[in-house]
Amino acid sequence: MKADEKKYFPMFVDLTQKKVTVIGAGNIAKRRIETLLSFAGTIEVIAPDACERIKELAKEGRLVWKEKEYDREDLYDADLVLSATNNEKVNNDVYSACKCLGISVNTASNRMKCDFYFPSILQKEETVIGLNSAGNPAKTKNVRKEMQKWIEEAGEKHE
Ligand SMILES: C[C@@]1(CC(=O)O)c2cc3[nH]c(cc4nc(cc5[nH]c(cc(n2)[C@H]1CCC(=O)O)[C@@](C)(CC(=O)O)[C@@H]5CCC(=O)O)C(CC(=O)O)=C4CCC(=O)O)c(CCC(=O)O)c3CC(=O)O
Ligand SMILES: NC(=O)C1=CN([C@@H]2O[C@H](COP(=O)(O)OP(=O)(O)OC[C@H]3O[C@@H](n4cnc5c(N)ncnc54)[C@H](O)[C@@H]3O)[C@@H](O)[C@H]2O)C=CC1
Questions:
Q1: Mean pLDDT of 78-87
Q2: Looking at ligand 1, which atom is closest to the CA of residue 144?
Q3: What are the boundaries of the signal sequence (predicted)?
Q4: Residue 2: predicted pLDDT
Q5: Residue ranges in the chain assigned as alpha helix (H)
């Protein structure tokens, strides 16, 4: 099957007892961590430098930031790995190591190196809507914005 003919199955996964290891602590890592905060048991971030928000979350004890460059050892106790550094070589190494270790991995810089795609998420009470467009993030972002409007409008109608 060609990559652009694939469809991704929306499996709703229990991460509450799992450890998610994020390599990199820039914009993309931050965006994804903000989403994961209410779902994942433990979040560990590996990066020599982190954006302000990630530093703040580390201070608040909501994640663990290891201020260092990535080593393969960082992956050993991970249940799920997100690789989001701005260094393609590092992202590729994280991907290869995870494949050897049997850990599910997402590589933000390369759609071909993902066991799963990171969803766009909408939440209302206990309902979670996860969106994916089989590798078309711009489309997903537009659909998310449209749906957000519908949900807000529907809420207003019921007030
Ligand atoms: C395949 C996928 C794999 C994965 O990473 O999971 C992937 C891959 C890549 N994205 C890239 C670029 C951008 N991605 C976004 C945004 C989002 N990307 C997300 C998911 C995914 N992105 C996965 C499948 C998505 C699907 O099919 O639905 C979202 C849903 C979730 C999230 O990131 O939180 C979030 C929208 C959230 C929302 O707004 O609701 C924006 C826009 C922006 O940032 O504002 C840009 C800028 C340009 C543009 O618009 O295209 C690049 C090139 C990187 C480079 O330049 O090197 C790659 C690499 C590649 O394609 O190989
Ligand atoms: N999938 C997606 O939605 C998108 C993916 N991207 C991809 O994500 C990558 C990251 O983007 P941003 O977060 O904006 O970059 P950024 O420059 O904000 O952050 C990069 C982070 O990687 C860390 N890093 C660099 N070398 C490292 C190493 N050896 N070990 C551990 N951490 C290391 C840095 O300390 C920094 O925290 C981009 O290179 C791009 O390819 C970009 C836009 C959207």
A1: 98
A2: 40
A3: none
A4: 59
A5: 27-36, 52-59, 88-101, 137-157
Look at the domain 3-113 and name its fold.
Rossmann fold (3.40.50)
| Domain locations in the chain as residue ranges | 3-113, 120-157
State the burial class of residue 55 (Cβ atoms within 10 Å of its Cβ: 0-12, 13-18, 19+): middle
C-alpha 31 to ligand 1 mean position (Å): 11
Contact 22, 46 (CB under 8 A): yes
pTM given for the model: 0.96
Token duo for residue 101 = 């270790």
Q: How confident is the model at residue 154 (pLDDT cuts 50, 70, 90)?
A: confident
Ligand 2-lining residues (CB < 6 angstroms): 23-29, 46-50, 69-70, 84-87, 90, 108-109, 137
* Distance (Å, whole) CA 14 – CA 57: 22
Q: How far apart are CA 134 and CA 142, in angstroms?
A: 14
